[in-house]
Amino acid sequence: MKKRNLFIIAVIVAAFTLTLVAGPLQAAKRRYVSIAAGWVTGAYFPMAGAISRIAWKHLKEEGIKVTAESSGASVANSKLIGAGDTDFAILQNDIASYAYNGKKGMFDKPITNLLGVCTLFPEHVQIVARKDSNIKSIADLKGKKVAIGPVGSGTTENATQILEAWGLSVEDLAKAEQLTASQSADYLKDGRLDAAFFTVALGAAVIMDTALMVPIDIVPVEGPNVEKLIKKYPFYAKQTVPGKTYKQNDSDIPTVSVMAMLAASAELEEDIVYSIINAIYSDLPQLKKAHAKFKDIAMEKGLVGMGIPLHPGAEKYFKEKGLIK
Fold first, then answer.
1. What residues contact residue 134 under an 8 Å CB cut-off, 6+ apart?
2. Among 102, 140, 169, 215, which residue's beta carbon has the most beta carbons within 10 A?
3. Do residues 63 and 269 touch, judged by C-beta distance below 8 A?
4. What are the φ and ψ backbone dihedral angles of 185, each rounded to 5 degrees?
């Protein structure tokens, strides 16, 4: 009888020990992850939604589920990673660099747990002006009412830097409004703004809709000041807004762009990041359905403009593909 009781006790102790060990192991294998995407009116949210669908299609047997969450702009998304409030984030490559290195005035301290996964597509700086404002160049923005993007956004940084390259500042504007993309579009339509900066993918709905409602011009970003801008901020690249992108936009308009990118928290498991990036590039047709701007996304371009260290899961993937040594 004594031996039987000892055996039962031993089984209970063993089961309890296994529970203690298995608990943390299971907790470590977190399979449900989130992406801080952006406003529903931009290109980030459709991107996050497409990644979520691809994960469900290809990774459900691994138990990996991705949830797309609307959020603030690039700066806010960086801070969400830093605070541990999201696993992935879509943001501009320039803002990712500022965050990782702790740019003064924008970030209190470096967000070193923000790591790169891949770059996605160029985000064109598109300056939309009401035709009746007679703004034909960056210099003409002086003394005008201009939206420069919401507080904490990459758009605000781009607007400030472009104005600077032309010898201007936000103080030279009659009024600098810090508005979301949809608010900026509404203000342009009803005449409360002369112009607005949008750092978004080509064909963005907010600009398409504005062009249908009121006569507009896309203000060119061109001339020797572009070289000055790129020399100081090398994450910019020369781009073009092709003719016919928007109603009334008949000819090609020169501008500059930054890159949209996917970043991940350093705390996120390597296998999850690897599985997700592998699924994305294995099912590009699904991704490209989500937005017209995604048509040029390719694995071979996935490191273009990457200005922060890669997450180990992404590094493993690109090494396997021979894109890094």
1. 140
2. 140
3. no
4. -60, -45
Report the DSSP beta bridge partners of residue 90.
262
- Residue 179 CB-half CA count within 13 A: 21
Q: What is the pTM of this model?
A: 0.75
Q: pLDDT, tens digit, for every residue of 121-176?
A: 988 999 999 999 999 999 999 999 999 998 878 899 999 999 999 999 999 999 99
Equal CATH topology for 30-121+260-320 and 123-258:
yes
- For the chain, the structural domain boundaries read 30-121+260-320, 123-258
Distance (Å, whole) CA 259 – CA 255: 14
Q: Which of 156, 151, 213, 204 is nearest to 182 (CA)?
A: 204
Structure tokens at 281: 């590039």
Eight-class DSSP state of 309: P
CA distance 75 to 67: 20
**Identity of the amino acid at 219:** V
**pLDDT attached to residue 235:** 86
Q: Which two tokens stand for residue 178?
A: 């810090």
State phi, psi for 232 to the nearest 5 degrees: -80, -35
Tokens describing residue 264: 């991940």
- Dihedral sign of CA atoms 35, 305, 177, 243 in order: negative
The 10s digit of each residue's pLDDT in 248-299 is 888 999 999 999 999 999 999 999 999 999 999 999 999 998 887 788 899 9
Class of the domain covering 30-121+260-320: alpha beta
In the beta sheet, which residues pair with residue 200?
Answer: 124
Q: Encoding tokens for residue 192?
A: 């409360």
- List of residues 6+ apart from 228 with CB closer than 8 A: 165
- Residue 282 token pair: 């294995």
- What are the tokens at 291? 């937005």
Tokens of 17: 């020990």
Instruction: Please tell me the CATH superfamily of domain 123-258, with its number.
Output: Periplasmic binding protein-like II (3.40.190.10)
